[in-house]
Amino acid sequence: MLRARDIVRRDALTGGEIVDRVVLDHGDRHRRRVAMRGVGGLAFLLDLPTATVLEDGDALVLEDGRLVWVEAAPERLLEIRAASEHALRRLIWHIGNRHIPAEIAADAVFIAQDHVLVEMVRGLGGSAEPVTRPFRPEGGAYAGGHGHHHGHGHD
Known about the structure:
- This protein has helices at residues 85-97, 115-123, 144-147, and strands at 3-8, 18-24, 30-37, 43-53, 59-62, 67-72, 74-81, 103-104, 109-112, 127-134.
- By secondary structure, it is α+β, with helices and mostly antiparallel strands.
- The strands form two sheets. A six-stranded mixed beta sheet has the order 2-6-5-1-4-3, with no helix packed on it. It has a four-stranded antiparallel beta sheet with strand order 8-9-7-10.
- The chain folds into two domains: 3-72, Urease metallochaperone UreE, N-terminal domain (HSP40/DNAj peptide-binding domain); 74-134, UreE, C-terminal domain (Alpha-Beta Plaits, 2-Layer Sandwich), CATH 3.30.70.
- The two termini are 35 Å apart.
- The chain has three helices and ten strands.
- It holds the Pfam family UreE_N.
- Keywords: Chaperone, Cytoplasm, Nickel.
- Residues 135-155 are annotated as: Disordered.
- Involved in urease metallocenter assembly. Binds nickel. Probably functions as a nickel donor during metallocenter assembly.
- Residues 3-68 form the UreE urease accessory N-terminal domain.
């Protein structure tokens, strides 16, 4: 089976033949080794040296040099907002205290749907509305650059 053993991060992608794409939700973008099938039907084995978070816009490098585009799938999320910047920071602190994945935007926070957190957010004066969009949560302080791996050394 054709293998993908490397990743080119979206900010380092400068060219190459993109032959297919995989559309993956947040959970499916954290992988090391799994059989995959692209939207166009290309079957391959993702075979990375370590478990890695695949980011929206990355490319998987097939052993023949061709690329498979990684796309974040739309997911059902909560969009959390607050009346002020200070109130939003307070909500972020409470959400962070729950140790759940969160995507922090300039004026909102996105988390997976959770009825308990909806009540908490609203109880603290914020809003929590369902949305469907790709989920790109923060990697965390110990994520090591989201599993940075693209085949070159660093000085």
